[in-house]
């Protein structure tokens, strides 16, 4: 772990006002744990590969103990707190996050690489789930259902499922935890979180605020681990009989593994997995709005979000004009370190992400695609800075038409008819998000109903907010986060039949 002096220097160097947010240990049963014999792993800035801090690589035996602590805490948390009391805790936590927004954004930018404006947006978005679920917590209640037998009554109760194992990715190190923990806490569940190895500092800062908000011991536990131990912890969470639900955001490949690990204990599962989002621009669309929507949707965080547009289908009548306008606007954007004031887009997270973008460009150009802008790695900025790239003349045979990119690569695919583009858009096992632009409102309903996606933006490239039931279908996962449905995956419905009335 980093020393107190190193943490102080870190805070001063980057202008972090509340240095109490900088934690490098594990948070278990209401205490910060720094095992003397523990291994550590380094957190680095992807923009320049500079070392930031060392974080504890939580020992497996300590994680097993944390699971037991979470189970003990659950027995009292579900019984001794009302929905209103949990609401008060979540609202206090919301206020604390808002108070520390600037510091939390700096931490996210340093370990994730995204532009500071994007990080501030994430913190605001993430905090909104605490506010939302603070309002939902007092409303988790059942029904009185009339029986067919007039001498009986059916009463239903909504009860928390138990300890929840939470596994989160690096691309939204703050919001992916808040969206899950907010719902879990509202329901009365306790949690144990394994954050992404690349971005543990944001998660640990959030743990400190949860501590300050006054949540009971054991309600929130966080166990940072390195990449090698991550695989062990995922399997441990799934196989532990004390953990009753897994909430995971990540790749479809890993989701399938976790589902297999969970089979023996038959846990509740909610998975937000990979995507391959279509973005369709019809001839009758407002071009300026469509271009702005494409840039915001496809290139947010340099294309490293699960709901990013992946395949851009443009109708032939406006294809050339759209390509020209899009390319012109993209050229105005600026790569750089996320803390620099003029930066709009930061680096990719690691060399594997860069290699995937490069491989898709190479494949596409070898099959006839043309590069309208970008195409290279900006090595003078750093090894993970990839130029924002637009490809034209992309066809269905190219890898970029089938594989999720997770990078700043915009492939433009020409289509003729609505029937053709719907067939192309739905030709994927994934179904997380989809987008389309048109001024024909009959088409809004028609296309929206036929796209095989869990979430769709019609004339909007931005869809995410706390009120949205976030989630996909098919290989993009199961369950919904946020919205009035968000608590459902964290509860069991119990029915009591009362006779002799």
From TrEMBL:
Record flagged with keyword rRNA-binding: no
Pathway assignment: Amino-acid degradation; 4-aminobutanoate degradation
Recorded superkingdom: Eukaryota
Leading EC class: oxidoreductase
SUPFAM superfamilies (alphabetical): ALDH-like (SSF53720)
Active site: residue positions: 272
Alphabetical keyword list: Oxidoreductase
Enzyme Commission identifier(s): 1.2.1.16
GO MF, one annotated term: succinate-semialdehyde dehydrogenase (NAD+) activity
Entry's family note: Belongs to the aldehyde dehydrogenase family.
Protein's name in the database: Succinate-semialdehyde dehydrogenase
């Amino acid at each position: 772990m980093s020393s107190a002096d190193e943490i102080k220097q870190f805070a001063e160097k980057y202008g972090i006002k509340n240095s109490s947010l900088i934690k490098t240990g594990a948070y278990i049963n209401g205490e910060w744990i720094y095992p003397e014999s523990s291994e550590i792993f380094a957190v680095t800035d992807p923009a320049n590969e500079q070392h930031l801090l060392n974080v504890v690589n939580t020992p497996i035996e300590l994680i097993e103990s944390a699971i037991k602590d979470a189970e003990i805490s659950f027995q009292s948390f579900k019984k001794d707190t009302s929905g209103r009391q949990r609401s008060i805790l979540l609202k206090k936590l919301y206020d604390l996050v808002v108070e520390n927004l600037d510091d939390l954004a700096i931490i996210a930018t340093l370990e994730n690489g995204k532009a500071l404006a994007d990080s501030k947006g994430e913190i605001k978005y993430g905090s909104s789930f605490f506010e939302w679920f603070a309002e939902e917590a007092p409303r988790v209640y059942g029904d009185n259902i009339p029986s067919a037998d007039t001498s009986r009554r059916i009463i239903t109760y909504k009860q928390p499922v138990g300890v929840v194992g939470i596994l989160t990715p690096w691309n939204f190190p703050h919001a992916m935890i808040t969206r899950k923990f907010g719902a879990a806490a509202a329901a009365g569940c306790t949690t144990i979180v394994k954050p992404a190895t690349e971005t543990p500092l944001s998660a640990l800062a959030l743990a400190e605020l949860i501590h300050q908000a006054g949540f009971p011991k054991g309600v929130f536990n966080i166990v940072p681990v390195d990449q090698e131990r991550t695989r062990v912890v995922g399997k441990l969470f799934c196989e532990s009989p004390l953990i009753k639900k897994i909430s995971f955001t990540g790749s479809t490949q890993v989701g399938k593994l976790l589902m297999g690990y969970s089979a023996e204990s038959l846990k509740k599962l909610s998975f937000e997995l990979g995507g391959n989002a279509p973005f369709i621009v019809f001839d009758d669309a407002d071009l300026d709005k469509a271009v702005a929507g494409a840039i915001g949707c496809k290139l947010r965080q340099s294309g490293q979000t699960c709901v990013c547009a992946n395949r851009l289908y443009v109708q032939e009548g406006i294809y050339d004009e759209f390509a020209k306008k899009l390319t012109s606007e993209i050229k105005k954007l600026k790569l750089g370190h996320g803390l620099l004031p003029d930066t709009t887009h930061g680096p990719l997270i690691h060399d594997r992400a860069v290699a995937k973008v490069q491989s898709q460009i190479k494949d596409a150009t070898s099959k006839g695609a043309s590069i309208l802008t970008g195409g290279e790695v900006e090595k003078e900025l750093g090894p993970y800075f990839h130029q924002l790239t637009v490809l034209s003349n992309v066809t269905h045979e190219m890898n970029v038409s089938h594989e999720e990119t997770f990078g700043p690569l915009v492939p433009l695919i020409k289509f003729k008819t609505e029937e053709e583009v719907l067939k192309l858009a739905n030709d994927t096992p994934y179904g997380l998000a989809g987008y389309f632009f048109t001024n024909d409102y009959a088409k809004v309903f028609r296309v929206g109903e036929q796209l095989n996606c869990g979430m769709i933006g019609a004339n909007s490239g931005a869809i995410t907010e706390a009120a949205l039931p976030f989630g996909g279908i098919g290989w993009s996962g199961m369950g919904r986060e946020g919205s009035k449905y968000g608590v459902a995956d964290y509860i069991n419905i119990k029915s009591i039949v009362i006779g002799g009335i």
